[in-house]
Amino acid sequence: MVQQFMALSQWSNSMKTESAAQPGAPIGVFDSGVGGLTVVREIMRQIPNERIVYFGDTARVPYGNKSRETVTRYSRQIVHFLRTQNVKTIVIACNTASAYALEELEQEIDIPVIGVVKPGAKAAVEATRNGKIGVIATAGTIASKIYSQYIETIAPDASVIGKACPLFVPLVEEGLLQDPVTDEIARRYLTELKDRQIDSLILGCTHYPLIRDTIEKVMGDEVTLVNPAYETARELKELLAERSLLNEKPIGLGEDGHSFYVSDAAEKFQVFANSILKYGILSAKIVNAEKY
Amino acid sequence: MVQQFMALSQWSNSMKTESAAQPGAPIGVFDSGVGGLTVVREIMRQIPNERIVYFGDTARVPYGNKSRETVTRYSRQIVHFLRTQNVKTIVIACNTASAYALEELEQEIDIPVIGVVKPGAKAAVEATRNGKIGVIATAGTIASKIYSQYIETIAPDASVIGKACPLFVPLVEEGLLQDPVTDEIARRYLTELKDRQIDSLILGCTHYPLIRDTIEKVMGDEVTLVNPAYETARELKELLAERSLLNEKPIGLGEDGHSFYVSDAAEKFQVFANSILKYGILSAKIVNAEKY
Questions:
Q1: What contacts A224, CB < 8 A, 6 or more positions away?
Q2: Interface of chain A against chain B, CB under 8 Å?
Q3: What would the pLDDT profile of A205-221 be if each residue is shown by its tens digit?
Q4: What is the pLDDT of residues B24-59, one digit of tens each?
Q5: Chain A residues with CB-CB distance to B263 below 8 A
Q6: Phi-psi bin for B220: left (phi > 0), alpha (psi -120 to 50), beta?
Q7: Which of A35, A36, B38, B82 has an alpha carbon 20 to 30 Å from B107's alpha carbon atom?
Q8: Is A205 a known active-site residue?
Q9: Tell me, what's the ipTM?
């Protein structure tokens, strides 16, 4: 009886792995809330045949001011949920979760996991001419020093200047995308980076591309703004190609298309999602992440 | 055997109730994060003999933009945790949780629960001369219409004008208590209330008393600012007196004094707590609220 049960459980595990490795399986993407949709937008643009299962942790947003332990626990629960959707790979679209949880989670599961930090850091190293790279992000991402540590390994001569910008997320969520208040806050946060003559700046939080114009106005034309979402989608495409996991067949909408899950307030999420993504998402379902 | 077990369980239940009803038992106070400490400060001022067990849900803060279901689930978990500390009464120091969860929780437990909404509403009704009352709060508290509904029952002729101020909490947490940016945001949020000639204004979020000066500058001297924390502490004192539950014996510090629990980032909490409360808190411990 016990043997029978074990055999069944092994069979079901191998089924899972096999099904996760099909090119037709979806890609799991998660974020603390809505910001990760800027990464989804980029994936849809660069590899439009891929189905996406998105999870936004709107019941526990934001992650940026929470501890490594808490952010890792939350990320692990979400990864467990995404595995139930038989995803073939997982993208951590949140910079804070990429900074704190990626390494641990990579070791715990048998499908590839990629974050936004490494692709963003690589792009900044390629863009810089004077070796001075700025990073703006949440307090958590900056405190983790993840960007500077990774840049040090690929470009030991570069210097990295990090700056936490805690008010950018609430300003974006309040809709003040082009506003004198956002200008003023941006000036305060960014003047130090400008004075220190960085020539490339990583937008190290998924909300920040939405105030790209404001940041550009303060930093000037000489500074290249790096959006990790673009590079992440490019790396994802390469990874899927290497493993023969690219989906060749165009996907439909409805049941065959993308799926969106949140841990709270699905309607509010849909409104925001529809303003970011090119076509309307059909619906977002609520999942209690604490149970995974 | 089953009977024996039941008897034991009844005995342990009655023990709990009895111990919760002792004057020497502590008062449970909870909030989504640090803001509820403004209520704690007021309780310490008005009834200094009472021991407090505080829980700040820093792992899931903020509550103000989350749904009724989620805020109620979180509040229920915290109440379960506070019961393990044998509290004699519970104060919901968070306006959003008071708005969404108080009624349900009141019916679920056998010790008194009070929120900050009713005391705040009563004080505003006493303060108004022209019957026009303003309420500023999180999006959740305003959407719940809890303040206007309650004021209608005690002062049917009063009119209530609510305004959500989502940026006030991040501005306070960023430390911009006296700052031109906070002035500008306050002007935008409050001008409508001023134009509609309210003469009393409820500070319907525990963070707002910390920018009282800024709010006062915009509203002018004619408008009475109502801080529900003051009235809540007064009602709590009355409630304890009625039930002969006031603690007569002065409390000490250390093991005999107050206890502070958070769900994340205890050190950051301690720093903020020490800036709000008169004397240093000894330490804050981490508790995972999801488990209750």
A1: A127, A128, A199, A200, A201
A2: 58-60, 65-67, 69-70, 166-167, 169-171, 173-174, 180-181, 184-185, 263-265, 290
A3: 999 999 999 999 999 99
A4: 999 999 999 999 999 999 999 999 999 999 999 999
A5: 70
A6: left
A7: B38
A8: yes
A9: 0.84
